[in-house]
Amino acid sequence: MQSAFVTRAIENAAEGHSSRLKLGEFCNIARGGSPRPIKKYLTASSNGINWIKISDASASGQFIEVTREKIIPEGVSRSRFVRSGAFLLTNSMSFGRPYVLRTDGCIHDGWLVLEPDYSRVEQDFLYYLLGSSQVYGNFDRLAAGSTVRNLNIGLVSNVVVTLPSVQRQKEAVSKIAKHSKKIQALERLYDRHLADIADLRQSLLQRAFSGQLTT
């Protein structure tokens, strides 16, 4: 869930000179594929191809940088090979969660891949945009009504978003980054205070047990 600050930054960037575009107009969108039986294609060899699974993604993270498993090169033709810089969306169950790839590899059919035109959209801005309540609300609405709620290429391609100029996108991302640094600094300060309180409590307990505290 995005913070209120991130939501405001994205909305403010869209005010004024913006375009209403479908995701499919500035992103190539495709679905992954799974070679089966998958155990036949898994390998520990150094020349194996990264096998990118949902379990390789952190629930709170933005990037997928490493994978736990690899597949043999022969499995590539039965899957979909994607490159660093692409976006992945979970397309079933807990669907619509965006991740940015920082590695090359193959994706299974639980993923949709978006390959953006980076002349039109800034990477971090697209990440925040895809994670916004506006876009997720569209995903949720479009996936409603089916027995198994999932996304497909057609649904995602037709989601309309408000896309400001690349310059305004960069300005929004810069504001979000500065805000995040402030939050992280406050969290570190809070953690230090908690550690100091814990140390003081332990010291007082030790003095009490040793009879050094007097009333």
Structural domain tally: 1
Q: H/E series, N to C?
A: HEHEEEEEEEEEEHHHEH
Total count of helical runs of at least 4 residues:
6
The share of residues in helices is 25-40%
Q: Give the CATH class.
A: Alpha Beta
CATH fold-type name: Adenine-n6-DNA-methyltransferase TaqI, Chain A, domain 2
Tell me, rounded to a whole number, the average pLDDT: 86
Look at the helices and sheets and give the structural class.
alpha+beta
How would a textbook summarize the main sheet?
Answer: 5 strands, mixed
- In quaternary terms, these chains amount to single chain
Share of β-strand residues: 15-25%
User: Order of strands side by side in the largest beta sheet?
Assistant: 2-11-8-9-5
- The CATH superfamily is identified as DNA methylase specificity domains
> Which architecture name does CATH use?
Alpha-Beta Complex
Distance, first to last CA = 50 Å
Uncertain parts: none
DSSP summary, beta strand count:
12
Shape: flat
Please state the CA-atom Rg, rounded to the nearest Å: 23 Å
GO molecular function: DNA binding
Domain Type I restriction modification DNA specificity: 22-187
Protein name: Type I restriction modification DNA specificity domain-containing protein
Organism: Paracoccus salipaludis
What would you say this structure looks like, in words?
The protein contains 6 helices and 12 strands. The chain is α+β, with helices and mostly antiparallel strands and 215 residues long. It has one domain (4-165): DNA methylase specificity domains (Adenine-n6-DNA-methyltransferase TaqI, Chain A, domain 2). A hairpin with a 7-residue loop joins strand 8 (87-90) and strand 9 (98-101). Helix 1 (4-14) packs antiparallel against helix 6 (166-209). It is flat and about 75 Å long. The chain starts with a helix and ends in a 6-residue tail after the last helix. It holds the Pfam family Methylase_S. This is Type I restriction modification DNA specificity domain-containing protein.
